[in-house]
Lipoprotein (Polyangium jinanense), 135 residues
Amino acid sequence: MSPRASLLLLAAAAFAAGCEPSLIALTVAPPTAVAELDSTEKDVRLSEGIALAIECTYRNSPCENATATSSDPDIVRVMPGFVDLLAPGDAYQRYPADEPRSVFIFVGGKPGDATVTLTSTDANATIDVKVLSLP
C-alpha cells in the first residue's frame, strides 16, 4: 500500500471514530424549574416532575433503531417521544422532517443521580447520559 493510501485510510478511520450521535434538547423548563442538557458533556439536570424532550441525530438524520434505558427509573424515567412529522427540528438548520425523528422524553423523579443509556445502530453507538434530578 502506498504511503498516500495509508494516510487516507488513517484519516478516514480517525474521522469515523470521532463521529457519534448528537443530542439536542427540544423543550425548555417552565418558570422556576430546571430542564437542561449539556450536549458536549452528555449531562442532564431536571427538576422533579419536569420533562425534557431530547432528540438523537447522526449526521443530520434521525438515529437509527435508537433505544433508551434508565439505570434508576425512580430518579429519571425515559420513554420514546413521537414528534409530529411536520414539526421542524431547528428552524434555522433543518426542514420539516419527512421521516420519524428519534426523540426521548426524560422525566425527573426523586432527587439523585442516574444514567440513561442511549443506543443506536448508527456507528454502533452507546451514549451514557448522566442525569441529576433536583428537588
